[in-house]
Amino acid sequence: MKRTLYEVLGVDSQASAEEVAAAYRKRVEELKAAPSQDNSALALARDAHDILSDTYLRTNYDASLVRPATPATAPGEEDRREEAAATGRRRRWALATAVVLLICIAWFALHRPSPRLSKVPAGTPAAETTAEPAQPEAVAEEPAIRSAKEVFNEVSSSVVRVSVMEASSSRLIDSVSGVVIEPGVVITNCHVAVRGTTLGVKVGNEVRTATLQMADEQLNLCRLSVPGLDAPAASIGSVGSLHPGQHVLAIGAPVSGEASMRDGIVTALAQVDHGTVIQTTAPISAGWSGGGLFDFSGHLVGIATFHHAYGPNLNVALPVDWVGQMRARGASATATQSVTAVDTQDISPALITGRWVCFGSIPGRNGDYTFRDDGRVLVTTSDGQPFDSRYSVSKRTLQFSTGTQRTTFNIEAFSATRMVWLLGSADSRVVCDRR
Hints:
Number of domains: 3
CATH architecture of the largest domain: Beta Barrel
CATH topology of the largest domain: Thrombin, subunit H
Number of strands: 23
Strand content: 25-35%
Structural class: alpha+beta
CATH class of the largest domain: Mainly Beta
Shape: globular
Distance between the termini: 46 Å
Radius of gyration: 30 Å
Helix content: 10-25%
């Protein structure tokens, strides 16, 4: 029997948010001490924490647990029921159409204008009098109204789960959703995809190895190649077709690769440096990041993102139009334009002492850094791994020392609130914001 999220964390269904958080921390420690044979155990625990800690998600999840089970049916019975239901719907539609047609005919008969008579020259027999026939007015057809369930059933097979792992140990680092845009090609968010060395894409029970084709960290979009992936490509739309108040559907694969949906409306189309981003009431949390935002015609119009720079507590989707603008760009390519370049003078430890949050394209370097004035730096990486290191800084260099291992970065840019490190090539940057 499939375990509930409460059973995954080992808590009661009445557990408070604090008890859920404590159980999650305990589960993470257990998995660190004794790694599970199930590579998805950590991701499942994280999903359980995210859903049970969120009042909206937990309410919907609890409702799904008490839904009555569907009684078993004989083979073919479900198809016969569906066919009978479809036949009934067609009959009702035909009857409604006939009634509307009769009403239109009756209205037209009562309100049609009198025939316009042409002028008749004197002496012309009455039989030759002609009238211009009245032409019926064209009636515009209303677009069909579709339900969220119909749209979900049509497009959900194009949404996948992307797992990010370490190559050496196959340890799961994190996971995110993605959308198939071409046969064997998946688009997802970069803030997770660039953190590991091995990528896997899961649809249902099928898992395929993926490779990173292109990372545009400025746009937070990564393009993955997944040979042999048996999933249909989404129908591509455009942000230009949207307007505030329009209904949309966010679809992600937050748990075990199974697609889930959240509906809402477009609340705003916000202009940013690269174009237009979509704000919506459809809740977008960590598990939905990288998934698709669809209009009710079934077109992919955006890529949901949980990590963004457009403001806190916003449900944001990046426009699908950006996929055509992608190119290999580091996360700090534009950030460095807003900070002051380092000069030839030394940067003392006193200038960087304090807490910084760092993000970039170098695996294992994203996270929370606290630089102390005694030369120690306390780090908690984005996957929750803490470590203690030493650091030294001089002119354009920042060096970290952990045991016998040393890593030296060039300080590409620096200000009181932001610094940028560079390791080797220009594509290997880490951007840090002071907190």
